[in-house]
Amino acid sequence: MSTRHRVFFANKGHSIVVAYRQFRNSDPPQLVRLWNASGLGRGAAQGLSCDDFDEAVIAQTYFDPAGLIVAVTDDQQVVGFVHTGFAADDTRSRLSKRTGVICAVIVAETHRRRGIGRELIRLAEAYLRSAGAENLYAGGANPRDPFYLGLYGGSESAGFLESDPAAHPFLIAQGYTPFERHLVFQRELGPRGPEIVSVRLLNAKRQAKLAEATACEPTDWWWSTHQGRLGSMQLGLTPKVGGALIAQVCVVGLDFYAKGWQVRAIGITKLQVIESQRRKGFGQLLLDEVCRRVRNEMIQLAEAHVRETDVAGIAVLKSAGFQQMDAGVVYLKTSPVVG
Length: 339
What we know:
Elements: E1 2-9, E2 14-22, H1 28-37, H2 50-58, E3 68-72, E4 78-88, E5 95-107, H3 116-130, E6 135-138, E7 160-161, H4 167-173, E8 176-188, H5 199-207, E9 208-210, H6 221-224, E10 232-239, E11 247-253, H7 258-261, E12 265-273, H8 282-295, E13 301-307, H9 311-319, E14 323-333
Parallel strand pairs: 5-6, 12-13
Antiparallel strand pairs: 1-2, 2-3, 3-4, 4-5, 6-14, 7-14, 8-13, 8-14, 9-10, 10-11, 11-12
């Protein structure tokens, strides 16, 4: 795949030819430079190195060079790229090429509003369609998040974040419509962090205690290729009188965000409370105990995501002192390009 088109700079009185081609092994230094310089908002890891990009993206077992399309000038300067992939199937044991995902699209600030982003999206859609995609999404979210977990979104993939203001109008113009919304919550763990006190929490604390940390058990192939590639541990609650776990979470490291956020942070995912023990404060207790535990290890921030439609999930995060900091939107292709 290789196409070209001429880009005009009216304010500079000249034009350049931009070519589009698939990823080459020599591209990562320029892709990383573009990522770090593009102002993607608070939810994008900053100060990435080529090794970081290789570990988090290129090393994925299903990485396809043809799905990462690069825009280059005559002098081989990379001025944009789009990266596509496919969702997991219903068994979460393999890719489903019926569902295509545009995971990232970036154009250098100096070359925006010149049609480069639009052409990248067109080529990305053509690649996905040619592989058999029937539905096209923009923005990754489990189980439609083949790439960039750990580099964009925070503790989980959450589509394109609202703190990245250029994303929404651009995707709308390309014929995409908001499909689902994910809320990003955080809790400070330092001296300014909240101290949680409630009758329900005290009652739960009398009955349960934090269990010893264990490794997060792989649940399926998709988990192993995503959270399984990040540092993680399982924490849970057990009854003080003894017995099996009544609630548990998976805690993942957010090491790639340390440079941009200037704090050490962890993500809290997969909160589960057994059905017979729900609405008794054990979810709130577990979140609070996890925050206290990791604070002792010099962690300064905890993050958790929840779908906008998950009323109970939102309530338990708020009850544990988490505040909404951002939101992410997954888009679905519904109409032709505008303009």
